[in-house]
């Protein structure tokens, strides 16, 4: 798995959730997590979650940390959703060291009852993908700034979250190669 | 998915990780999480992790909270390991409300640098299973008592962790049924 | 699995076989069978069976019972086709109590050598779906009316078929959770 | 898929449900249905259904028709159980032409409220298997003789059921190769 | 699996890599390898390999042998790529009898350092497909003519390669049905 | 994937085909190919191929090159058999540079009509494995020595074959991450 943290800013418009975006962007020929900073304004045609689409949800933020994960090892919906929840939990763990009052509910993080993140996961015929975005600043929703995470710390958080998922997946791949099958009653 | 919390104490000897243990114990014909309290003394022939076996690890505790998870929806090793890590993160989240200094590393939880838990995951030809045990008391390792979790609180923790996983899985099953497939670049 | 029987009439034009139709229609976040009554006129762009498309088959009926099944547990073509055949057999079993001369050939039912039903099954990247339609009246093909099934009985048949599949799937899910793996010679 | 009807009698003791039995018996290197006649007396160590094992069920019959199905195309439990139900429905369809009062409940057939059949399905790491046995004569349970199926007709039933499943599977394999993927809402 | 060698010439424009092309062309309802001769000029909208697309690669040849393989037994990317490499190796083996200096590198064959073939593999939601094309003549790239394979020999090569893959797959399907599962340390 | 070439000699008795042997031997927590030299004498209880077992085949050689491959990414029988054939083809390609008259038939290599190799592939619930052995010397069967491959060349062949498979798998993993899904007719 490759872990790539982009220096340049990219605005997330929903096209980045498409399969093979990483290859197109940076010739990545591996499972990957790509992290970057930028605004968020998801076009209706790129909305994956039909609940958002139905409710005409506006997914908009001026400044966010974005994480785009792609796995080609399976197209199992259950696996990508388990990974999405695990990634959300990892994100929570990284932030908890800085701000102890985060609550995870499914694929969302909250502070003071306000939503801090947006996230989606799905599959195509060739890969599974996850997007998670964290508000850096926001008028109505929760944000890193509100948690006191500003300046260089924002960039550190970007690195830490991406690296933690990268390490977690590598660790899982090792662990599952040293366990014998279960007995049966 | 069924969530069953046992009143009676059961000592974990490693046979409980076998496939179909839940059916044998309680006629459970569903995916399940079964939670109970008891000692832990894993016999060498029930050790699933070859690293433990090789190192002659003693997996022993006088008093633990045990969680046994069984899914029959797939026998994919990657899925059961993602679920194991997610379950460990959920356990951490429940405990953090009571004791803010827990650290998760893979499938282990630590307090003050001491291991608080044991865990294993694997598959047979018919199901995938996870075991996680948390020390209630322990002389050398971390324990709930050391975290100030004693008396009725121990039982509450048992319920909360089991219910949280149960809810998480139900929530995932709903979420993955409202997302359209990914576009492709 | 949810079993939903719609009161209002819906005309089947082939768009209902699309993945996530059930969520779009009724916020269903579960595997589902949705049963309703209405005309049938499948537009060429919604034809899934290329044999029909090639032959320029007109799939048209003024009044039909429709069943739309969606499973998200796998996207295996073999599984959805086995389920389609099983569903056709279940439909046959329900009708046999009222009219003993039905013949099933694959995914079709016949009376007096006349086709009574239309059916298709396929998958997308996120779900598997089955459609089965039964003529209530028809000039050229077989129909429920011709079998003496009219008035309230038509509605009863709609309910019985949907409920039978619902029960069968629930029963399967229980049964597969109490069988140990096979031995090997 | 091969369809083999054995002339010689074989007593079913449960060892025939093991993976690779068909290869061992007759050098079959294909998916297969093997049909034969013989007594049935399942040894406890060959019981696959833990419910039977728990209840100390005696699975005994002096004279039965047996069908042993093996597929190597997947080890998915859901697929083998869908196929088992489909096979039971096919068996019912063949018998209905001779005796119109058969009822299927899951993987069991009944006449006059009496059980006519036994069946089990499961997987190993290499194949999926189904056994179905139909009483030819029986003191307490339903039987073909009781349905008026005797003499040469018993043998015809053996052939018809085996051939019907064989044809159904071949037909499914053809059908799934002419359907385009689903659209998505 | 069906092996079809077409008498008539077909120009490969990339549309033939689409799922269900074999059914559309020749009502094939089986896994298949279809071999034919014709020019090659892949339109940009049919390019599957994003590396080619990115580099604006021209995939053009006046005269090629084409092989189109379709399997419906799984949509696993790893399986179709293993099969593509195996097919390329088989192609190499057939040509080696006539010209001993062929080198295979992944999915490409080379003579005298010049590329002799083009190949791609991918999946849709319903099938997996492989295309391999071999230059019969070419000004810049390697070609059969350059290897001294001309006239009737070209047609023989077309038949031999198609038949070899056909036999290999049939042989694999037999072999995997006589091996017991692995033991575990 | 790890590629390990052992200096010390190991006699292959069939136990090395067991899942997790690589971990047990050398703490390998990755997919792997392990190459070594040693005698071959497969005990009957370790025979995976029932055809060998049935025929009472003696699998014996005084001196062989052995390759043990283990993949944990899937337990699909079709995938491990495609990989086995690909590996056999790779082995053939390496040897062809030294001796141009090798013939591959399925998973066997032949020189002058004499069998040069033994091979088996299968799966457990946790991994898929392949063994291929090549005679270095042999009285009745083909051998490297007979091909003029002796001394240091034998060791070079050991390295080349192992490295070639290692590179092939790495290359496949890259290639499948840059192809978009297929269109459909």
UniProtKB/TrEMBL annotation, chains A, B, C, D, E, F:
One short Pfam name that applies is DUF366
Query: Could you name the domain of life of the organism this protein comes from?
Result: Archaea
Q: Which InterPro entries does this entry report, sorted A to Z?
A: aa-tRNA-synth_II/BPL/LPL, DUF366
What lineage, starting at the top, does this entry show? Archaea, Methanobacteriati, Methanobacteriota, Stenosarchaea group, Methanomicrobia
Q: What's the protein name?
A: DUF366 domain-containing protein
């Amino acid at each position: 798995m490759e872990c790539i943290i982009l220096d340049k800013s990219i605005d997330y418009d929903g096209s980045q959730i498409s399969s093979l975006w990483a290859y197109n962007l940076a010739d990545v020929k591996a499972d990957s997590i790509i992290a970057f900073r930028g605004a968020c304004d998801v076009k209706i045609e790129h909305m994956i979650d039909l609940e958002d689409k139905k409710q005409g949800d506006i997914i908009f933020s001026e400044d966010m940390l974005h994480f785009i994960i792609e796995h080609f090892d399976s197209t199992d919906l259950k696996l990508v959703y388990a990974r999405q929840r695990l990634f959300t939990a990892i994100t929570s763990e990284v932030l908890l060291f800085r701000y102890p009052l985060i609550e995870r509910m499914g694929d969302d993080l909250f502070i003071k009852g306000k939503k801090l993140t947006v996230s989606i996961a799905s599959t195509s015929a060739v890969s599974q993908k996850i997007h998670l975005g964290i508000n850096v600043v926001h008028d109505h929703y929760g944000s890193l700034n509100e948690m006191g995470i500003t300046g260089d710390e924002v960039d550190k958080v970007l690195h830490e979250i991406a690296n933690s998922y990268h390490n977690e997946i590598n660790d899982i791949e090792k662990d599952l190669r040293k366990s014998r099958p279960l007995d049966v009653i």
